[in-house]
Specification:
Homodimer. Its EC number is 1.1.1.44. The protein has 469 residues and is an alpha/beta fold. It has three domains: 172 residues, 3-Layer(aba) Sandwich (Rossmann fold), CATH 3.40.50; 249 residues, Orthogonal Bundle (N-(1-d-carboxylethyl)-l-norvaline Dehydrogenase, domain 2), CATH 1.10.1040; 26 residues, no CATH class. 56% of the residues lie in helices and 11% in strands. The strands form three sheets. The protein has an eight-stranded mixed β-sheet with strand order 3-2-1-4-5-6-7-10, sandwiched between helices. A two-stranded antiparallel sheet has the order 8-9. The chain is globular and about 75 Å long. Bound molecules: nicotinamide 8-bromo-adenine dinucleotide phosphate. Nicotinamide 8-bromo-adenine dinucleotide phosphate (NBP) binds next to helix 1, helix 4, strand 6 and helix 6. Nicotinamide 8-bromo-adenine dinucleotide phosphate binds next to helix 1, helix 4, strand 6 and helix 6.
């Protein structure tokens, strides 16, 4: 047994993670349910073959790893993970560590922790972000489990992780489901980021009548400013790509129906369960669902048409506003995502380190950006702030972008351009910043029909109204 670690599952993510591990000087054993995939992987390992032991059976795989064995499972999330754990369990020894590195629902991770209790085996639920490229050259790694177990795998995980100015983007975030929960919220924020980018693209395409190449130039310019991020970079890049067959921009040929695998939805469900609004993520998830209803949308357009265009403001002014609106929308989405994590930290007793989370998202993952460096600094300086928007740095961004967000949402409303995530960000800020809201009326209604009672501004205790009296 010479391997120091094992990887099960050699589809895109597992294969690249295994190569990354070998690249960092570790000897890795690999196994995949379907042997042909294992063979293909072994054949592709090239110069790294010396440090790869490809195994045809799970027994050979376990035997190839030096105990106590760290075993990374990188298979399709859900049932396959349970099946893989069940198959592994009888073959492993006490102190071996099973690491589920897929996109697990953290509630499944919590259940797996409970199921493995008393088995002598150690479990880690690990969120990995960065797609294929990240897995191969450095992902962001979010770890949940016993801190002692993390210490044992820390060297290899930090070695393979992305680095932000030399700092590894891998960290232990808390017990049991903490890592997978944080990965879920990462993906929820990713949904919001992508949706808001798509919304400003829509304004440029449908309101300013810009072609893909011109829109690409705008995103390229933005990537040198405060919006500098991986998602803005790839947006500029994809907008420039032409379809070989038609010579048209490929985005103009791609069907406008987005897929989703569940992490965005889980973010929304968990935030709702804890009563913490994540409106930008909700809007993004709903927008993907609406995007999938293509036939209905076509029917509705035929029935209602699109509102007539209003007088247009100067295009450069609109573009300037779009940049700032996107920044404002980002502040809302991240403030909401971090608030959801703060609530979950309380609820599940994780003590999530907010600044560390922002730090390990600065490189490797899909939402990597300079913005996250500012978030890390803000949480470092204000560890107990209830909302990112209230930190001095982010209050300032809101002040500087507020009017632009208003103009973008107002223009969009008058022109019938859908900007649900940006509009939700504005609604969130405007609700959050108003000390006297309108829920007094809701409380009156609730008391009227259900005798739910209300608090008074001028007296202690619970009161009822003189309804119908
Ligand atoms: P997939 O999610 O497409 O899963 C394919 C892998 O799962 C194959 O190795 C397959 O083996 C294995 N598998 C299946 Br399906 N059922 C199995 C079972 N019952 N027992 C054992 N193995 C089984 O692979 P992926 O795209 O590499 O993603 C892996 C994980 O990483 C997922 O949880 C995913 O959500 C997560 N993730 C993906 C990305 C990304 O960009 N793709 C990013 C971050 C996280 P087979 O070859 O025998 O069919």
């Amino acid at each position: 047994a010479e391997a120091e670690i094992g990887v099960i599952g050699l589809a895109v993510m597992g294969a690249n993670l295994a190569l990354n591990i070998a690249d960092n000087g570790y000897h890795v054993a690999v196994y995949n349910r379907t042997a042909s995939r294992t063979d293909a992987f072994a054949a592709s390992a090239g110069a790294l073959s010396d440090r790869v032991t490809a195994c045809a059976t799970l027994e050979d795989f376990v035997a190839a790893i030096r105990p106590p064995r760290p075993v990374i499972i990188m298979v399709k999330a859900g049932e396959p993970v349970d099946q893989q754990i069940a198959a592994l369990k009888p073959l492993l020894d006490a102190n071996d560590i099973i690491i589920d590195a897929g996109n697990a629902n953290f509630r499944d991770t919590m259940r797996r922790f409970t199921d493995l209790e008393g088995s002598g085996l150690t479990f880690i639920g690990m969120g990995v972000s960065g797609g294929e490229e990240g897995a191969r050259h450095g992902p962001s790694i979010m770890v949940g489990g016993a801190e002692e177990a993390w210490r044992r795998v820390e060297p290899v995980l930090t070695a393979i992780s992305a680095k932000y100015q030399g700092e590894p983007c891998a960290a232990w975030l808390g017990e049991n489901g903490a890592g997978h929960f944080v990965k879920t919220i990462h993906n929820g924020i990713e949904y919001a980021d992508m949706q808001m980018i798509a919304e400003v693209y829509g304004v440029m395409r449908d309101h300013l009548s810009m072609d893909a190449a011109s829109i690409a130039s705008v995103f390229s310019a933005w990537s040198k400013g405060p919006l500098d991020s991986y998602l803005i970079d790839i947006t500029a890049e994809v907008l420039k790509v032409e379809d070989a067959a038609s010579g048209r921009p490929i985005v103009d040929i791609i069907v406008d129906a987005a897929g989703q695998k569940g992490t965005g939805r889980w973010s929304v469900i968990e935030s709702q369960m804890m009563g913490v609004p994540a409106t930008a993520i909700e809007a993004a998830v709903a927008a993907r669902s609406l995007s999938a209803m293509r036939e209905q949308r076509a029917t509705a357009e035929a029935r209602f048409g699109i509102p007539a265009a209003q007088d247009r403001r100067d295009a450069q002014q609109v573009i300037g506003d779009l940049e700032k609106a996107l920044l404002a929308g980002k502040v809302a989405a991240y403030a909401q995502g971090f608030a959801v994590m703060a609530a979950a930290s309380q609820e599940f007793g994780w003590n999530l380190p907010m600044a560390t989370i922002a730090r390990i998202w600065r490189a490797g993952c899909i939402i990597r950006s300079t913005f996250l460096d500012e978030i890390a600094t803000a949480f470092n300086e204000n560890p107990d702030v209830p909302n990112l928007a209230l930190t001095p740095a982010f209050s300032k961004i809101i002040e500087e972008t507020d009017q632009s967000l208003r103009r973008v949402v107002a223009d969009a409303a008058l022109n019938g351009l859908p900007v649900p995530a940006l509009a939700s960000a504005l609604g969130y800020f405007d609700t959050y910043r108003r000390a006297r809201g309108t829920a007094n009326l809701i409380q009156a209604q609730r008391d009227f029909f259900g005798a739910h009672g209300f608090a008074r501004l001028d007296a202690e205790g619970e009161h009822h109204g003189p309804w119908g009296g």
